[in-house]
Write a structure and sequence with these properties.
Blueprint (H helix, E strand, L loop, with lengths): L3 H7 L25 E3 L5 E3 L12 H17 L4 H17 L7 E3 L2 E5 L5 E4 L7 E4 L10 E7 L5 E7 L6 E7 L5 E14 L6 E6 L6 E8 L2 E7 L6 E6 L6 E7 L2 E6 L6 E4 L7 E6 L2 E6 L6 E5 L11 E4 L5 E7 L3 E8 L2 E8 L4 E6 L5 E5 L9 E8 L2 E9 L12 E2 L3 E9 L5 E9 L6 E7 L13 H7 L3 E6 L9 H5 L7 H15 L4 E11 L1 H12 L6 E5 L5 H5 L11 H4 L5 H10 L13 E6 L8 H13 L6 E6 L11 H15 L5
Parallel strand pairs: 32-33, 32-34, 34-35, 35-36, 36-37
Antiparallel strand pairs: 1-2, 3-4, 4-5, 5-6, 7-8, 8-9, 9-10, 10-11, 11-12, 12-13, 14-15, 15-16, 16-17, 18-19, 19-20, 20-21, 22-23, 23-24, 24-25, 26-27, 27-28, 28-29, 30-31, 31-33
Helix pairs in contact: 3-12, 6-7
């Protein structure tokens, strides 16, 4: 590994954008056309639609994917030393900068579940952790634990396990004393919770094919019974417990509404019937009944006289969300704590038991982020807050709720080698788009730029600390996040201006940020690169269609690129629940907007830049055939030299296989670094 001094000298003169080192001249293996008529409100012929195989087992398909993988690895052979160097750097940083661990308090102890399925227990924060369950991760293949629920007395453990990567989880019940499997439930589920008395395990089962969480089942003494079923295909079920552990809540919701039931007596008791556009979320602490709701427009906090009065009202307003975005809230015996965003920054308000504001604190400013950490003891007088920034390693502090003063704990550690900031870019229609940036201060030559974007579902792409990104910065990159409309950094209105028929705003914002940064004298305009995953892959792919020469290369991770094809198929997972996000093709105006934007349908003759695209064979959110079809069609249209690389994880899904996630990231970064002319 180079020393920082040597790296700085190596990067004093940047290399121009360059082809991949030692790439072979072998042509990309052909992905033959397989035309298929796509049915819908408007039928259309998809030239590669026949490569869809719901079974994922067709020999010809698997042979094609393996051949594409082989060619991609061959093209990247020359960058393998760089990829290995990156992995070594990341592992060294991980050892040197351990992240704070999150423990849950259950059954009188603190518990933590590792990614490999091992369960650790400690009596308190000062005691040494003790492993209760050996790793369940198999020697090979995919493995992920999505959720776990510990029995109230600590004897039994329920796990939601994924062995394929399709997020269709099997529920396994284990005896912690013996490690034996007591039961494997016949249905696949996504959520699980023990009843308050420990007699019943509730699970939310997935619908076949669509994987929609739609049925509530109760397991008791080896027998299961169906308790509740959500009939509306656009609505999803989930479970949670109230803060005081006195109530179990079954929740049904879609993009802009919710409905809740109490499970205290076994069968669900409706709290308030669903109303279009109304969201409400219950929590209780002793006799206090609080509700997070948008009943007055912005999401605020209200107090109800009792559980039985939720439907009738009135609810007493305690905290208004006007001009701010409520994200988390916690109830304590004598306080209520609210975490929210205002103008993109994180804030914390503390209310007393009567709902009066006693403290208001700014948690971040600019390119940083902070949030309430984990579960909290409602009897406590303090709350744990985690903070980090793009150049600031994660740390956590306790806040005294009575005084509003921070207690002695971890202090912010900003690495002096790096600088981060938030900028505002004027977009195409005059909006101001926030951008988070980080770079290395002692490298003064014009830098390459990696621009990341997502912009969907109201999700704020927070400026997290990413140790892997430091390897880019050390080699002369700026890393930037474009907080485009459709994301949630600036609140609900910012989100709505970038979804459905307004989705083009997301692309306009992304390209406006790229153009603005290209004019920065500190950045080399010929070495701008883009990255996006899932819905962010749609953002980047649409930007490439509309400005194919703006970027020198791009990485698209499991990209959602066949917008029309997916939204016209209601049998696919998520489609019916996503009409509010992307539009309903049965509505002419929605269809027209999707047709103008859909990356797959708008490929055209243009010099597209080099691309590295990933897919997961068992991906249930973005099926493998979307990246496959898109790349095949792009190769047929592009007048550029490429390469256009596709790598499909054959033992994985939407998330990278935990076994290979680091290798995949190293390949992606090495691909971009090589295009930027960096070899070491």
């Amino acid at each position: 590994m180079h020393s920082l001094l040597v790296l700085a000298s190596l990067l004093a003169t940047p290399a121009p954008a360059a082809p991949l080192p030692e790439a072979t001249q072998e042509a990309a293996p052909l992905i033959p056309e397989r035309p298929q008529l796509m049915k819908g409100e408007i039928a259309r012929l998809d030239p590669y639609g026949g490569w869809r195989d719901n079974s994922r087992r067709a020999p010809e398909l698997l042979a094609l994917l393996r051949e594409q993988n082989r060619w991609t690895e061959q093209q990247l052979a020359g960058q393998q030393p760089l990829a290995k160097t990156l992995q070594a750097e990341w592992q060294a940083r991980e050892r040197g900068e351990p992240l704070p661990e999150e423990w849950l308090t259950e059954a009188g102890s603190q518990w933590r579940m590792e990614a490999d399925g091992s369960l650790w227990q400690r009596s308190d924060a000062r005691s040494a952790p003790r492993q209760r369950l050996a790793p369940r991760q198999p020697a090979q293949g995919y493995y992920e634990i999505a959720a776990w629920a510990l029995h109230p007395d600590g004897r039994l453990l329920a796990l939601a396990e994924d062995h394929r990567g399709d997020r269709d989880y099997r529920i396994t019940l284990l005896d912690l004393a013996s490690g034996e499997t007591l039961a494997s439930l016949p249905h696949h589920a996504s959520d699980l919770l023990w009843s308050l008395d420990g007699k019943t395990l509730y699970t939310v089962a997935n619908e076949r094919h669509t994987l929609r969480p739609w049925q509530l089942w109760a397991w008791q003494a080896g027998k299961e019974a169906l308790v509740h079923q959500e009939a509306d295909p656009a609505w999803l079920l989930s479970l949670y417990r109230t803060t005081d552990n006195r109530h179990l809540v079954l929740q049904s919701n879609n993009h802009d509404g919710s409905e809740q039931y109490l499970l205290d007596e076994g069968g669900p008791t409706l709290l308030r019937a669903r109303e279009r556009g109304l969201e409400y979320y219950l929590d209780t602490q002793g006799e206090r009944v609080l509700v997070k709701s948008n009943q007055d427009g912005a999401m605020g906090l209200y107090q109800a006289p009792s559980l039985t009065s939720l439907a009738a009202g009135p609810w007493q307003p305690l905290w208004s969300g006007e001009g701010r975005e409520l994200e988390k809230w916690r109830l304590f015996a004598h306080h209520t704590v609210l975490q929210y965003r205002k103008a993109g920054d994180d804030w914390l308000d503390v209310l007393d038991a009567g709902g009066k504001l006693t403290h208001s604190l700014a948690l971040t400013e600019g390119a940083g982020t902070a949030w309430i950490q984990g579960s909290q003891d409602p009897a406590s007088q303090q709350i744990l807050i985690r903070r980090q920034g793009m150049a600031e390693a994660p740390h956590q502090r306790w806040l005294d709720l009575a005084s509003g003063q921070w207690q002695a704990a971890d202090k912010p550690v900003a690495n002096p080698l790096y600088r981060s900031e938030r900028r505002w870019v004027v977009g195409k229609d005059g909006v101001r788009v926030p951008v988070s940036l980080v770079w290395r201060k002692d490298i003064t030559a014009p830098k390459a730029l990696l621009l990341y974007g997502y912009g969907a579902y109201g999700t704020p792409m927070r400026p997290y600390y990413q140790p892997q990104v430091l390897s880019l910065l050390d080699r002369g990159f700026v890393y930037a996040i474009a907080h485009v409309r459709g994301g949630g950094l600036l609140g609900e209105a910012w989100y709505k201006e970038g979804r459905g028929q307004q989705k083009q705003h997301s692309v306009d914002d992304f390209l406006a940020v790229a153009e603005s940064l290209a004019r920065d004298p500190a950045i080399d305009p010929a070495r701008l690169f883009a990255m996006g995953g899932s819905a962010g892959g749609l953002l980047v792919a649409a930007a490439l269609n509309q400005a194919p020469t703006r970027f020198a290369g791009a990485v698209l991770q499991v990209p959602f690129v066949d917008l029309l094809g997916t939204m016209q198929d209601p049998e696919l997972p998520l489609t019916r629940q996503e009409y509010g996000e992307w539009g309903n093709p049965a509505i002419p105006a929605d269809y027209a907007a999707m047709r103008r934007l859909s990356p797959y349908d708008n490929l055209h003759a243009a010099p597209y830049p080099p691309l590295y695209v990933t897919a997961g064979l068992h991906d249930s959110q973005v099926p493998y055939w979307e990246p496959l079809k898109w790349l095949a069609r792009l190769r047929a249209h592009s007048t550029g030299a490429g390469p256009y690389l596709l790598h499909t994880e054959l033992e994985g899904g939407h998330l990278a296989n935990p076994r290979t996630a680091e290798l995949r990231a190293a390949r992606e970064y090495a691909f971009l670094l090589s295009l930027a002319g960096v070899r070491h």
